[in-house]
Known about the structure:
The complex is a heterodimer of chains A (127) and B (303).
Chain A: H1 16-28, E1 32-38, E2 49-50, H2 61-74, E3 79-86, E4 93-101, E5 110-115, E6 121-126
Antiparallel strand pairs in A: 1-2, 1-3, 3-4, 5-6
Chain B: H1 2-7, H2 14-21, H3 23-33, H4 38-60, E1 71-75, H5 81-94, E2 103-106, H6 108-111, H7 119-130, E3 133-138, H8 153-166, E4 171-177, H9 179-188, H10 190-195, E5 198-202, H11 207-221, E6 224-225, H12 227-242, H13 248-269, H14 277-281, E7 282-283, H15 285-289, H16 292-302
Parallel strand pairs in B: 1-4, 1-5, 2-3, 3-4, 6-7
Amino acid sequence: MRLTQGTFSFLPDLSDAQIGAQIEYCLEQGWAVSIEYTDDPHPRNTYWEMFGMPMFDLRDAAGVMQEVSACRRTFPNHYVKVNAFDATRGVESLRLSFIVARPQEEPGFSLIREEGPGRQMRYTLRS
Amino acid sequence: MNAVSESRPQALDLEAAFRESHVAEVLDKLGSELVGLTPVKSRIRDICALLLVETLRRRVGLSTQAPSLHMSFTGNPGTGKTTVAWRMAEILHRLGYVRKGHLVAVTRDDLVGQYIGHTAPKTREVLKRAMGGVLFIDEAYYLYRPENERDYGQEAIEILLQEMENHRDDLVVILAGYKDRMDRFFGSNPGLSSRMAHHIDFPDYTPAELLDIAQLMLRQMQYTLSAEALAALREYIERRRSLPSFANARSIRNALDRARLRQASRLFGQRGSALCANDLVTLEAADIRASRVFGEVEREAQA
Lengths: 127, 303
C-alpha cells in the first residue's frame, strides 16, 4: 500500500529535478532543510531518525541533493523524507515535509485486534 | 558535425553576449575600486573572455566540458586577494558559471576537526554551504602540516580534492595565501596544484599606488588631507614599506585609522576654540607625523 504522508504524497513520486526545485524554494525562503529516514511510517511515529545534521546556511540545493542520494544509498529500503524548518519567531516549526524515497515494497498497515478489560475489543494499526 | 554547419550562418554576437551578462559593470568596478594590480586585472579579463567564448560554444552546440575554474591567489598580505575573490564570485555568477554567486570565506579552523572523525563532516558541511558559489580558503597552506603526520589537515585536503573533482559545476574553490608558503604547499600537494586552473599572483603595490589607495580610502571615509599631510603621508609610506610586517593596503588602512584617532584627540584637546566643518574632515601633517614609524626609522639610523 502506498504511503500518503506529507506534502505531494498523492502525486506520483517526484523526480530528482523536481525535488531539487522544491528544496531550492525552501532555501530561498530561508528555511533549514534536514533529512530523516525510518522503517516505521506509522502516522503517530512523528520523529523519524535524522540523517546527519539539519543543514543551515545553505544557498544551493546541490548540497541537499547530495545528502538525499547519500541517504538513499545508505538506506535503500527505508522511507526518506525532506523537512524544511522555518525558524522565524512565532513560526518555529516545519513548513514543508515530503517523502523522497520509499522501500521497493510498501507493506502498508495492518489492523490489530486486542481484547481489553470486560471483553472490550480494541483496534489499532501496525505498520 | 551537422549541428555545427547548420548553425554557422547564424551570426554569433560576442558583443551581445558580453552585454547580456552585465559583466562589464563588475569589470569596471574592479578597475575603479582597485588601484594598480594590472597583471591581476588583465588575467581576470582573460578568464572572462574565455568563459564568454565557452558560453557561445555551448550555445552553438560545440562540445565543452565544464571548465575547471578553481583558482589560487598568491601574494603578500594586504594586496587585495579577498576583495578580488568577492568580485570573482560576482563575475562567475553573471557569466552563469556559479548558480548563486555567494562567497564562503573559511580558514583552517572551519575545515579541520579536533578529533578523529570530526574533520570529514566539518569539511563536507562547509562544502555544502559553498555549493552554488565560491569557497574561499584563506591561508590554505595551514591545511597541510608536514611536521605532524597525524594532523587532520591532510584529510580535509583529500575531501576537498574529491569534491572539487566531483562537483565541478557546483563549486569553485579559491585558495589564497602568501606566495612562498603557497608554493611550498602546492609543492607537497601536487594533486591540488594541478587541479587549479588559474594561478594568479598579486604583486606588491608601488608607493604611488599606495598613496592612491590612501586617498581612495579617505574619500570613502569622507576625510581630506591638507597639503602638508599629503607630503607627510608620502614620506610615511616610504618609511613604512621598509619596516617589517608591512601589509600593503592593510597597513595603509590601519595608519589612516590611527591618524583619525589622533585628529579626533587633537580636536578634542582644543575644544575651547571654535570648530568648523572643514576641521572635522581635514587630517593635518601632525596627525600623521606622530606615528611611531617616523620615530623608529630614525632610531634604527642611530643604532
